[in-house]
Amino acid sequence: MKKTVLNHIQKEIPSLSSLEKPKDLSFGHYASPVAFSLAKEFRKSPMIIADEICEKFSKNDIFETVESIKGYINFKLSSDFLNSLADKALNHEDNFAKDSKNKKILLEYVSANPTGPLHIGHARGAVFGDTLYRVAKHLGYDIQSEYYVNDAGNQIRLLGVSLYLSSCELLGKDVVYPEEYYRGEYIIDLAKEAIEEFEEDYFKDESIIEELSTWAKDKMLILIKENLKSAGIVFDSFASEKELFKLWDETLNKLQRDSDATYKKDGKLWLNSSKFGDEKDRVIVREDGRPTYLAGDIIYHNQKFERGYDEYINIWGADHHGYIARVKAAIKYLGYDEGKLEVILSQMVSLLKGGKPYKMSKRAGNFILMSDIVEEIGSDALRFVFLTKKSDTHLEFDIDDLKKQDSSNPIYYVNYAHARINQLVQKSALTVDDIKDTKLEDLSDDEKNLLFNSLLLNEVLNDAYKTRQLQKISEYLKNLASLLHQFYNKNQIIGNDRENIYLKILLTVALSIRTGLKLMGIEAKYKM
């Protein structure tokens, strides 16, 4: 809508590059301060210039009025124009609020170690990433989602050790656990499964740990995929760190084509990352010749950039903030534009239940499982609450609040607006086709403003995606639901002389709510 209006205005005023949306729609649906920027050029007061611009739109089908107030130009949309937008939306629902962008993007998120089930911290990045992916797809971007599987290194061996010792303990053998190991009921369950699959003789000595580690990693990856799917999250591809390490020598040679990239000191190979903003240089090969964790990131990002995307987005936990500069330094040394990599940080989550800290999961050992929360409050509530704040700010919520069946629960409130509209349509003697065929004319300000707000979704999606502030979608839906409930309480819908007009406006509201929720990974409810 905004793009259409702006294009129309620019035919008369080419220098007008943007429009604002006034807080008070009684002034107009859009406004522009362009007269102030033209005042110096034309040597006139902004008020005179604004008046002259308004004259250009004295006869126009898109606008009901174009008025100047203290130099600002206010554009109030006409009923006919809003009706044409509503017709387009309701008759082409699959294309509602869509765009066509020309950019190829690789989005990497979650990438949790496959050493256990996903915890609630992983869930926040997963929901944010999946929603960013859905919104980007809707806006026409060519985007692919990828999970980087950290299946190389000590943490996978430690999983194998933990599983081996747990299995031996279940078989009645005396075991001594190391200071660091994975614990929790999921390890015991995995040990029982391993004993059943491999039988007792398999566990005679530690020579099996490497094989057992790979077996356990594969089992954990299946569990992680199930955890994600329970929240409606499915990845396009998975990249294995272990497989990528086969490219280490090749990648290192490429990195060292830049003579400044690395140097040797104390028997180690260092990345000269401080040259590009890192607080200090980083070791990429240890004294014993083993590559470090950072080496894996260097290989992976080289492989990513070799695939030729226009943009690369990583969603990392806030604890990985320090990795950004060193990874970007490596990308620069590899000969790529490090500016094409964007890293979005996902902050921690604090859970309450009845005002008290949520208890840790016995199955997980020392953290709260994503699957436990999905089971308790459902995927829809989990996704909605995770999308009510910026990803890089701390989030705390009480799961009991998300079980409430009243307006204090935001997902209930939004869903109730959609269900209420559906109920009204069912009560009406008019068919849906009759309602859609209604011409919206002579709309009151209340009617026009509700319809206008219901048609803002494309603007909201573009803004939310561009700023990476996906909470703007949930804010928009809550506001639209509030406007709907106010309109319902103020007007008798069924049996009113304007019933057909009201219902067409409400159908447009429902479409916007339904589409917005879908892009958040939530299915709108038709009955409550």
Describe this structure in words.
There is one protein chain. The protein is an alpha/beta fold and 528 residues long. The protein has four domains: 76 residues, Arginyl tRNA synthetase N-terminal domain (Gyrase A, domain 2), CATH 3.30.1360.70; 159 residues, 3-Layer(aba) Sandwich (Rossmann fold), CATH 3.40.50; 76 residues, no CATH class; 115 residues, Isoleucyl-tRNA Synthetase, Domain 1, CATH 1.10.730. It has 20 helices and 14 strands. The strands form four sheets. Strands 6-5-4-10-11 form a five-stranded parallel sheet, sandwiched between helices. The longest helix is centred in the middle third of the chain and has 21 residues.
Task: List its salient traits.
Gyrase A, domain 2; globular; three-stranded antiparallel sheet; single chain; five-stranded parallel sheet; 528 residues; Rossmann fold; 4 domains
Topology:
Blueprint (H helix, E strand, L loop, with lengths): L1 H9 L19 E3 L1 H9 L3 H10 L7 E7 L2 E6 L1 H13 L12 E5 L11 H19 L3 E8 L4 H17 L14 H14 L10 H21 L7 E4 H4 L3 H8 L6 E4 L2 E4 L10 E4 L7 H14 L4 E7 L5 H11 L7 E6 L2 E5 L2 E2 L12 H8 L1 H8 L8 E4 L11 H18 L4 H6 L7 H10 L2 H11 L3 H20 L8 H21 L9
Parallel strand pairs: 4-5, 4-10, 5-6, 10-11, 12-14
Antiparallel strand pairs: 1-3, 2-3, 7-8, 8-9, 12-13
Main sheet summary: 5 strands, parallel
**Strand order of the main beta sheet, please?**
6-5-4-10-11
Give the total of domains: 4
* Distance linking N and C termini: 32 Å
Low-confidence residue ranges = none
What percent strand? 5-15%
Per DSSP, the total helix count is: 20
Which descriptor suits the 3D outline? globular
Residues in helix, %? 40-55%
What is the second-level CATH architecture of the largest domain?
A: 3-Layer(aba) Sandwich
By DSSP, the count of extended strands is 14
**What structural class is derived from the secondary structure elements?**
alpha/beta
Rg over alpha carbons: 29 Å
CATH topology (level 3) name of the largest domain: Rossmann fold
Give the CATH superfamily of the largest domain: HUPs
- Quick check: average pLDDT? 94
